[in-house]
Every structure is written in structure tokens, then in C-alpha cells.
Amino acid sequence: MDYWLVTAGPEGEPGINGAIMPRNGNLTTVNTISVNSVDDAIKAVEKAGGKVIQPKMPIPKIGYFAYCLDTEGNTFGILKPDISAK
Fold this sequence. Notes:
Layout: E1 4-6, E2 18-20, E3 31-34, H1 38-47, E4 51-59, E5 63-69, E6 75-81
Parallel strand pairs: 3-6
Antiparallel strand pairs: 1-2, 4-5, 5-6
């Protein structure tokens, strides 16, 4: 998967960092939320009526993530940072 990190400021300071990847269909900007557990976050999303549209997967040396869809049709990501991800 082509995926490039973008850093908007110094490490350890609040800011908006992100990534760039090839467009996937109609998918454009996706906000991603840092979570303590992707598995727990997926359960919460599904319990609230949302759906998982990209199951949990690793981003090597970054962490684990999934894409979800809320009840209004908005796509968002969830990410558990983990540098040991493979």
C-alpha cells in the first residue's frame, strides 16, 4: 500500500499530522482518531450502529488501524500507535 506520513510540526508537540495515499474511489479526506485499542473502538462503533469498512490492519512501524463508517455515512479512521506493528 502506498502510504506516506506527513508531519506538520515537531515531535511531542500538539498538531495535526497525517498521511497521503492514493485516492480510493470516492474516499477523500479522512479524519483518524488515536485510540487505546482498535478492537475496543471497533466494538464501540458497531454497538453505536456504525460499520467497519476496512478491518483492522497494521501499518508497519506506525500502528494498527481500521476505517469505519458512522450512522450518517461519514468515513473515519481509528489508529492505535504501536511502533512494533508489522
